[in-house]
Amino acid sequence: MVIQDALLRKVRDRTAVVGVVGLGYVGLPFAVEKAKVGFRVLGIEQNPARAAQVNAGENYIGDVQDEELRDLVARGLIRADMDFARIPEMDVIVICVPTPLTKNLTPDLTYVESVTREIARKLRPGQLISLESTTYPGTTEEVMLPILASSGLRVEEDFFLVHSPERVDPGNKRYTTKNTTKVVGGVGPASLEVGQTFYAQTIENVVPLSSAKAAELVKVFENTFRAVNIALVNELTLLCDRMGLNVWEVLGAAFTKPFGIMPFWPGPGVGGHCIPLDPHYLEWKAKELNFNTHFIALAGEINRRMPEFVREKVHRVLNQRGVAPSRAKVLALGVAYKKDLDDFRESPALSVIHLLRADGAEVVYHDPHVPTFRDGELGMESVPLTADLIAAQDLVVILTDHSGVDYAWVVKHARHVLDTRNATQDVRDGREKITLL
């Protein structure tokens, strides 16, 4: 095929222009990796502040090196625009937009559909479109392909379409975009060849799959696997609470076994852009096939219950200390969903804060990585972590175990600490003031 061969040549000699739609936690690191090997990258970012930052060489993603982004922008290898006018310039278009859930836990593909329609209006022969956003099996072929085909161009002949799910683990210094194995599934063999060749230019190991649908299922299974196992240890936490046992002691001993087990740890719930959402995509798709995913539904139920359990434990600790929850002063220590990140999307800490405020507690928070946040109608600012602040609180609740916090110092000045992350495991003095989840 003349069109396919021409695109493959551009990809292999890296003269292909790469478009990245959405320059967030997935898109910007991906754009940087492509630009580092010589591709010219055009980003489409509809957040004006982010687009301006990229064009000024100002980094806002922890997994990107500031110096690398500045250098690539200065060399003209990365540029951000706010609209889709430059789609015809792009040989490869990678879509990295959010795929949230509705309030009823059903898939919301508004962003994917909107972007696909914009691409279809300007689609030209010789382009590869890759969806990296996590979604339910069937999205690429059943939702995107009909929209793209409305352009009058033919898939597998005029343009090529693949799904290659992102596998970003924010804050992970060992596994990055470059050395994390990539899976790719195409809507046909020509699309697969182009997609695999493109990703192989910058990623060390690329695994081809038989279809886009298989690639979509791979990603939602990966995160469902984590959600189910986290739910298992969270449920064990609830049981250990009833039995008067330290769940971290039990799990720590269990994980010393060198085979047949892998570590997962409990906490106040699950957060981030994947684990709280992705299993519901699979659950929803299964119902379309008249199949009930019992494990997935139960895991979601248990994980969503954890903020309520933290609230219950807060009440218990306060009551034991003779403090009414409705008159308590509480410091929430950490609101990011994961340690050492500034990302608070779907963070269970926010749910805990909402619950305690609804009980009448006076809640403040400190997070060295999240200076402010807004969640619905609630907006808060991080307060400085001082000895006087800590001493003035009836309870300090550790919700995110950031490594930059001196937990021994916190315990020293606190009246009492509820630790939902086992962040105080190495604290020796004042353990009588610590209650574990």
Architecture blueprint of SSEs:
Layout: H1 2-12, E1 17-21, H2 27-36, E2 40-44, H3 48-55, H4 66-74, E3 78-81, E4 92-95, H5 110-122, E5 127-131, H6 139-149, E6 159-163, E7 182-186, H7 189-200, E8 206-209, H8 212-243, H9 247-254, H10 278-288, H11 294-320, E9 329-333, H12 348-358, E10 362-366, E11 372-375, E12 378-381, H13 387-392, E13 395-398, H14 407-413, E14 417-419, E15 434-436
Question: What is shown here, in short?
Answer:
The chain has 437 residues and is an alpha/beta fold.
Q: CATH H level of the largest domain: which superfamily? A: NAD(P)-binding Rossmann-like Domain
Strand content is 5-15%
Q: What is the straight-line distance between the termini? A: 61 Å
The CATH class of the largest domain:
Alpha Beta
What's the CATH architecture name of the largest domain? 3-Layer(aba) Sandwich
CATH topology name of the largest domain, in short, is Rossmann fold
Low-confidence blocks of residues = none
The total beta strand count reads 15
The backbone outline, from C-alpha atoms, is elongated
Could you describe the largest sheet, including whether it forms a barrel? 8 strands, mixed
- Give the ordered list of helices and strands: HEHEHHEEHEHEEHEHHHHEHEEEHEHEE
